[in-house]
Amino acid sequence: MNMMYAIDLSLKPTTFDLWHVCLAGTVVVLAFMLIMLLLVMLISAMRSKNPPVERVTQPVVPVTPPEPVIKIVEKIVEVEKIVHAPVPEPVILKESTPDAALQLLGLLQKEARFIDFIKEDITSYADSDVGIAARVVHEGCNKAINEHFTLTAIRTEQEGSKVTLPAGFDASSVRLTGNIVGSAPFTGVLVHKGWQVTDVRLAKLTQGHNANIIAAAEVEL
């Protein structure tokens, strides 16, 4: 009696044995190898499409050695010497000594008794007496001034005449008075012509001379 076995291929296995595990692992390994093979083929095809890059060789430029630090410092010092302006010389103020003024007072006292006249109390004297003394002082002072100084007038115009001072006039030689408004030129009346010394002829003092002694005291024996 022959027995027939019918196999239903639509049935799904419900259990996994060692044979099924090995079969599944083999399938996974084959699939991984196939993927790797496809990747290698794809990379090779992409490389064949791109042309090889030619290497451009640049000429070798000789490197100049840096300048020594000493030369650089010398150049900086030279630039500083050119840029910096020379330091201006300090302004030296002249010190005035009283010797010349004391000498002039001595001359006025000698020729005109100027100090005696100034220090004298003239309130008790009559005007006529004062006038006589003033004439003596005037003559003596005029003699001393003319002998040791040369005086000239600053303005040559007549006093009382109209003069015009241009812009930039010497303010040390002309003094403005009255209502000063605006800027030069100024037009006004010459009140005083002014004086200036053009020459001085004072004698030189000897060593040890005491210029503070205007007039020595007199003792009659």
| Overall outline | rod-shaped
How large is the count of helical segments? Answer: 5
User: Span from first to last CA?
Assistant: 201 Å
Q: Could you estimate the helical fraction of the residues in percent?
A: 40-55%
Strand content: 5-15%
Rg from Cα: 61 Å
Q: Structural class, from secondary structure content?
A: mainly alpha
The chain-level mean pLDDT equals: 80
Largest sheet descriptor: 2 strands, antiparallel
As residue ranges, the low-confidence spans are: 79-85
Number of strands: 4
Order of helices and strands: HHHHHEEEE
Strand order of the largest sheet: 1-4
Q: What this model shows, in words?
A:
With 221 residues, the chain is mainly α. It has a domain at 99-172 and 186-200. 40% of the residues lie in helices and 9% in strands. The protein has five helices and four strands. Helix 3 (99-112) packs across helix 5.
What's this model, at a glance?
With 221 residues, the protein is mainly alpha-helical. The chain has helices spanning 18-49, 69-83, 99-112, 114-119, 127-148; strands at residues 149-153, 162-165, 186-189, 195-200.
Present the secondary structure layout.
Layout: H1 18-49, H2 69-83, H3 99-112, H4 114-119, H5 127-148, E1 149-153, E2 162-165, E3 186-189, E4 195-200
Antiparallel strand pairs: 1-4, 2-3
Helix pairs in contact: 3-5
